Amino acid sequence: MRYAYGLTSALLVGGAAISLATGYPAGAQVAQNDDSRMATMVPRAGAPASFADLTAQLQPAVVNISTRQRVEVANANPFAGTPFENMFNQRRGNQNQPQYREGQSLGSGFIVSADGYVVTNNHVVSPRGRGTVEEITVTMPDGTEYEAELIGTDAESDLAVLKIQRSEAFPFVRFGDSTQARVGDWVVAIGNPFGLGGTVTSGIISSVLRTAGTGAYDRYLQTDASINQGNSGGPLFDMQGNVIGINNAILSPSGGSVGIGFAIPAETAAPIVAQLRAGEEIERGYLGVSIQPVDNDTASAVGIARNRGEIIQGVQSGEAAERAGIRAGDIVLSVNRREVTPDQTLSFLVANLEPGTTVPIELIRDGQRRTVNATIGRRPSAEELRQQQMFEGDDSEEMLPDEGDGTVVEERLGLQVVPMTPAIARQLGLGADVQGLAIAGVDQNSDAARKGLARGDVIISANYREISTVAQLEGIIAQARGENRDAVLLRIQRRGRPAGYVAVRLR
To answer: Has keyword Repeat (predicted)?
Structure first.
């Protein structure tokens, strides 16, 4: 789930720069299509008497997507952590083996080429929690099912590309130019809400470039076309039959549609889809700063226009911003001569620059305008960023990893851990050469908590064996349990203190 404006903004799963293709014939297409009938398409300024003809042309290229997943479930032993734990396991006959259940997800997608490339959202085809996706099925409007190959995913933009195959050509649709979308334009959404395949809804563009989050790609087309869970990954069409958005999320107090839906603009999606189809790695620009929008008081204090600029709250050591001389307190007004605004954030502008590019950055420092040149770095992955931010700020619960990401370490020791990286070491005030697992969270009901272990501590070794991966610690835990040991001996490195040994009971 995502949260915005105090209401639930739910992902709709049930269960750099290239030119966009414009001017293509509208509608789902195959090699033998007669495009002459497209000439009767509704003009841009007109109000359609019916969406039936448009729907008939587009619907063949819109598909339903389902996944079958194998999800590991938490240990249901009510005697876990007590002397009776093994007795319970023997009765159930599981001998401490992980338990699994089958999971599913439902979503939508659309075919973008005659040879069967399919576009959808990453979260439609990604595993949930501690699961693995075992099968992806694409279902055509006529009910024909195809097993899909996952070609590529991009979690940052929430996009994924699949491939299906058959001997004859598939119907397909094309991306349009979302930069030409205007508030009030008619749009049509086709998808698989609540598993009801082939559902068509219509509405208008309610807002363009709506910022509904804090990520670099949380910029959407807003529509009042009814979209719900299961519409995720489905297309949002203009009246020329071009895909101008990919339905992604809704803003709702109840989880159902209230007329506020969001779609990833084609101008964002099309270049990324092209790279995923080509098997290319998605690289984005990165400055290495923490930022905050400029509010009215800040704008008044430094004498700049409202709704412009972002203030630098912190600068990461060794990253592009520090190398360029950018400091905390600077207010960035533009990047590469493009203004920083609420609809065109600093994160978005930088992320869409190619790493290694040197660009001018206009900023205000001490009331004076100045320009610095920054050579853009490579943006870390979403997981790397999460780990970097995990130890910043206070110990509030929202900084911890999701509970669904639990491991054997969490189950047996009550600890959430991540491998050390140079960035985490800097945040913890440790040398870059420190190896081990950083503790990201501690179950307050565990023996680890009673022994004083806390977030920010680093596990250097377990049972006298140095560790640097979660798998290594899991192996030591498994060995200890196999030898009927009740605890493991951890060597802990704390900030500003010498390393010491702590024996933590298994549960």
So the answer is: yes
- pLDDT, tens digit, for every residue of 293-337? 887 877 777 778 777 899 888 888 889 999 999 998 899 999 999
Could you tell me if 351 and 463 lie in one domain? Answer: no
Asked if residue 402 has pLDDT above 50, the reply is no
User: What integer pLDDT is reported at residue 2 of this predicted model?
Assistant: 39
Whether residues 120 and 239 share a domain: the answer is yes
232 is an active site residue:
yes
Q: Which tokens belong to 213?
A: 């989050």
Q: Is 443 a catalytic residue?
A: no
Give the C-alpha separation, 26 to 35, whole Å. Answer: 8
∠ CA 218-220-226, rounded to 5°: 125
248, 119 Cβ separation under 8 angstroms? no
Q: Exactly one of 123, 157, 185, 238 is catalytic; name it.
A: 123
125-146: buried (b, 16+ CB within 10 Å) or exposed (e) per residue? bbebebbebeebebbbbeeeeb
Tell me the pLDDT tens digit for each residue of 232-265.
999 999 999 999 999 998 887 777 788 899 999 9
Asked about 468 being catalytic, the answer comes back as no
Query: In sequence order, what E strands does 253-391 have?
Result: 261-265, 285-286, 289-293, 310-315, 331-335, 338-339, 358-365, 368-375, 377-378
If asked whether residues 366 and 219 sit together in one domain, one would say no
| Contact criterion met (CB below 8 Å) for 76 and 105 | no
Domain range spanning residue 356? 285-378
* Contact assessment for residue 54 and residue 188, using Cβ atoms and an 8 Å cutoff: yes
123 is in an annotated binding site: yes
Contact 133, 125 (CB under 8 A): yes
pLDDT of residue 129: 64
365 with 386, same domain: the answer is no
Catalytic residue among 157, 226, 232, 257: 232
Query: 153 near 275, Cβ under 8 Å?
Result: no
Number of domains in the chain: 3
Q: Please answer whether residues 372 and 321 qualify as being in contact, where contact means their C-beta atoms are separated by less than 8 angstroms.
A: no
